[in-house]
Amino acid sequence: MTISYQLKRADFIFKNENDWEDVLNKSISCSATELINELISSELKGRGGAGFPTGLKWKLAAEVDEPTKYVICNADEGEPGTFKDREILTMVPFKVLTAMAVCGYVIGAKDGYIYLRGEYLFLLPELNKAIREFEYYCDEIKLDFRIHIFMGSGAYICGEETALIESMEGKRGEPRNKPPFPSNSGYMNKPTVINNVETLAHTYTIFKYGAKRFYDLGVQYSRGSKLFSVSGDTPKPGIYELELGMSLADFVEEFGDGDTKAVQVGGASGFLVPRKRFAETAIGFQGKLTGISLPTGGSMMLFNSSRSMFNVLDNYLEFFREESCGQCTPCRVGCQQLLMGIKAVKRGEKNARYLDKLLRLTETMKLTAKCGLGQSVANSFSSIVENFREEMIY
Amino acid sequence: MAKKIKLSINGIFVTVEPGTTILDAARQAGVIIPTLCYHKDLCIAGNCRVCVVEIAGQKRLAAACATPCEEEMEIFTNSLNVLNSRKQIIELLLSEHNADCTSCFKNGSCELQKLASDYKILKQDFIRLVLFMNYSIDKYSPSIIKDDSKCIRCQRCVRTCAELQGINALTVAYKGDEMKITTFFEKPINNVVCSTCGQCINHCPTGALVEKNYIEKVWDAISDKTKHVVVQTAPAVRIGLGEELGFGPGARVTGKMVAALKRLGFDAVMDTDFTADLTIMEEGTELLSRLKSVLVDNNPECKLPMLTSCSPGWIKYIEHLFPEYLDHLSTCKSPQQMFGVLAKTYYAKARNLDPETIVSVSVMPCTAKKFEANRPEMHDSGYRDVDYVLTTRELAIMIKQAGLDFQKLEDMHFDRLMGESTGAGVIFGATGGVMEAALRTVYELVTGRDVPFENLDIVPVRGMEGVREITVKIENPLEEWAFLDGIELKCAVAHGLINAQKIMESIRSGETGYHFVEVMACPGGCLGGGGQPIPTSPEIRRKRAEAIYAEDAAMALRKSHQNPEIIKIYKDFLDYPMSEKSHRLLHTHYLARERY
Amino acid sequence: MNPVSELIKNLADQHGRERHNLLPILQGVVEQEKYLSEFSMIEIARELGLPASEVYGTATFYSFLEHKKMGKYIIRICKTITCSMKGKNQVLLAIEDMLKISVGETTSDGTFSLLQTNCLGFCHKAPAMLVNNEVFTDLTPEKVREILSSYLKK
To answer: Which helix or strand (DSSP H or E) is residue B351 part of?
Structure first.
């Protein structure tokens, strides 16, 4: 099966139009319901990787009757191979700040937080300057909204929204049991919308140009454009805004080095697609799209034939073993077993059939882990082991 | 009232209140879902994932303990997906657990072992992670042994220490594969703010936290013909011991316990209840003298409220966390230590024994008593007053080791001299008991009449409410106590150190006006102590409390001052309460400790 | 007053003394002191009215909140696959060679500590490293030697 969608570049996010004041004014002259409906009809889904419909997220929080609510911009960009959010905050911070304020207006929040990963501390001076300018303008137009920065301190799991909340509350970044979801009970147990940096930047596009302009990009179930962080064996690493729905074959043709063996879509928690399946793989959200469709935070790592897939998997598993919060059994112990397991097979200490036991373990992790981290370890593990079994053994 | 929720579990329809978890709904439907990190005393963690269940229409399994029921949910607790996942989770836990079961103190009572047995994990070929772990075994505390190689990181101990006891001696540290349960900077438990209450032991599902046991030392002493081994048993032991030996919670096995101790070979089997009565005489007198000193003499040095001092976990807690209130503590030693010092003085003299040859053993529902017996100041007999402290659980082990058929033992009586007690001594084992016993005696001392409650049952101080208050008005006192006429004696009771914290903070706020406050470190008082049978739960503690009060009601004498052996000891040995001799032997002082 | 105690008091004045102010305070101490000593954690616990164990448990969760003594400059080299593919190991060897320390160690003069870290978000300019809060990308053994020399001159 071949995907017919072509790779199409888009240029919304980084186009600096310097019109954020207008977009802000225009947006807050609309009713909250109008804005929510606009978002819903755009079919924008979260760009952090999980792909929850953004309009619905805002709607749920808006519906809760509670005087104190919060908007949080998730800038804990930690997925290996992702670097788009930093670029957005560097190049077009006002789009994000505007979107946060509009979200605050829609749901009824007066405070917004940017949870910025500790690794990006160097962004702080410029970002603070932008916030001061933004708040000054809010005061001018009598919009009661304040934006605070909360720094992370080196914990990948804090990108998970409830772990992020725990971290903001001064605790260990351990994901919570859900329900309740943050839209009902988030930061300080108040209704909270948490959006990824890029998601917020897209809402800016939608509020500026209308939902249709966004909706017309991409394909069914995967509307709009998205930033892709391209790295690995590519002659042109960097950040690219592309329409969703393209086939991976097209992507590789554009970005590959002519010898691409596999592409890791979605970072360490995503899937590895081998060359033989490039043509049948579409990049978008899971839906009834023909072919295999992959949810993605936009990390695209290309590997050419000189690379050992064992080393790749080993690297990912070491990452998960360290970055698991450690509270739930399947993730804490599972990640250790997977890592030590593949090493044992490689060294010949365990029979190759042990890989099948490990594959069953990843099924259990997918079914039972408490949060997205533990659930998604299976993605890279099974896609690598199933497609490159020989490399795991010999 | 919110509308009830209908759902089905394995095809069985149930109706539950909104907010009910799947786990509780399943129990209602007679479906048992295994758990590990879940405990009735604690908040929901949802981290072991052993209780996962399948919900129709959902891709992933849900933790039954942490997921609220929703209308029309269809739940399956033993689908193939669930069974396979659960087995694999248990296997994972076993791979990070030092499953050296045959040499483990918890062998036979370990929840992980039970799960492994129920699910028959016969092929365990995951890599044994415990072999690669850098773990430590902390044996420095006289009360608690913490063996990290057996820890499965369910965090029950951490939640216990925080939620029930408000101490946070234990914490979760690091993340990922390095995540562990530890103390501040991984110091030995003995060097941090630990009350040694042992509630962490009571709530640990495996052998990661156990008491330091002295079973072999006690066997050695018993078999040493040159030694005279005296044993005392605390009030709560007699209503807990049965649970370890085939009885249900709340069985009163006093007579069998005495018989068992005699069969084990102790030379004298006597009762801590006796010194509980003695404590009332001393502490009641101390209370009255404090009242006089404050109310009549306006002595600023003398502090009210007076705080009870029989719970050594509470003592260590206040030493760490409220050291500025140490002079509020009654100077009375705990009944265990009063017994210990008397065993090597009064008893030795009466029996014409060289105290050097006496080995004093106590059986306690408590791990803090092990710490207490080890305190350097507890040598007022000239020797170590209490040599070995056994928990209720350790005694049960000795009974099993001796091959005694506990259920068939004929009831026997405690030995004389320090074996007689009253109902007042018995109720020391329940929260509120010391208060009730003290009021029975103090009121009568002051007024010459019975405390004005039907059958001497001071019901307001009973029960499981965290903090309870009672006001007793003194009317028409005897002439000696005329200054108390019309005084409303304000008293309060707290159990579980989280409630101790509450009561101390309200005392600190200065708004309470309490005269006398009883605090017990453990939930439910000693009956829920850290040395009592495992498991524990609010329901089990309630049954044990009923047994305590039934024991009291069945006693011929129910006021400490009526105890003939108490009357005798004052006549023959101590002279009178708070005498110079009793000060020397029965009273103590406290030590301010670091909070951090 | 001990300078660390004073720092902590000032941080608490600035951020507040609630539990949710804990991270900014821990970060503030690390920024100044490079790590959280036992003493600092106790002072923070005291200032915020928290159990010391909670401070310890929280701090050890975050890899940037070191609790072992660190050098003046903390080098964190990214060990994610993309950096490895672009020669991270050679860069690491060059650093180890130059500073005579291995990963996890601090130079005897207390100038540099060397650590590895997870994805820094510069995969398109791999390999990358942080020196304190400053980022360096497209590293080569030669380049990293120059960078460290410039720190030595500071």
So the answer is: helix B348-351
What's the pLDDT tens digit per position in A75-127? Answer: 999 999 999 999 999 999 999 999 999 999 999 999 999 999 999 999 999 99
Please say whether the structural domain C73-153 has been given the CATH code 3.40.30.10.
yes
| Contact: A315, C133; criterion CB under 8 Å | no
Mutation test of the interface with chain C: which of A74, A83, A260, choosing the one with the most C Cβ atoms within 10 A? Answer: A83
Q: Which of A194, A215, A236 is the last residue of a domain?
A: A215
pLDDT at A290: 47
Do the Cβ atoms of B197 and B536 come closer than 8 Å? Answer: no
**pLDDT, tens digit, 9 for 90 and up, residues A122-150:** 999 999 999 999 999 999 999 999 999 99
Chain Cα centroid distance, residue B350:
33
The fraction of chain B above a pLDDT of 90, given in percent, is: 99
* Token pair 């030092």: residue: B98
Return the residue matching tokens 């942080």. Answer: C130
**CB-CB contact of C128 with C90 (8 Å):** no
A154 and A31 within one domain: yes
pLDDT higher than 80, residue A293: no
| Amino acid A4: pLDDT | 62
DSSP assignments along B442-490, one per residue: HHHHHHSS--SSGGG--GGG-SS-SEEEEEEE--S--GGGGGGTT-EEE
CB atoms C81 and A156 under 8 Å: no
The answer to whether residue B286 is catalytic is: yes
Among residues A287, A304, A321, the one where a domain terminates is: A304
Is residue A104 within a helix (H) or strand (E), and if so which, with residue range?
A: helix A93-107
Quickly count: other Cβ atoms within 10 Å of residue A38's Cβ. Answer: 20
Alpha helix stretches (DSSP H) within B353-432: 368-373, 392-401, 423-426
Q: Is A151 found in the same domain as A282?
A: no
CA distance B298 to B192: 38
Could you give the residue ranges of the DSSP H alpha helices within A169-308?
Answer: 197-209, 211-215, 248-255
Using DSSP's 3-state secondary structure scheme, residue B148 falls into: helix
Q: Which residues contact A161 (CB under 8 A, 6 or more apart)?
A: A72, A74, A182, A186, A194
E-strand stretches of A221-265: 222-223, 225-232, 238-243, 260-265
Q: How many CB atoms lie within 10 A of CB C89?
A: 12
What is the percent of chain A where pLDDT is above 90? 91
Spell out the alpha helix ranges (H) of B265-384: 272-295, 312-321, 335-342, 348-351, 368-373
Residue to test with chain A: of B48, B82, B92, most A Cβ within 10 A: B92
Residue B1 makes CB contacts below 8 A (sequence gap 6+) with none
**Structure token pair of residue A389:** 């079994």
* Pair (A193, A93) in one structural domain: yes
Query: What is the extent of the structural domain holding A324?
Result: 309-393
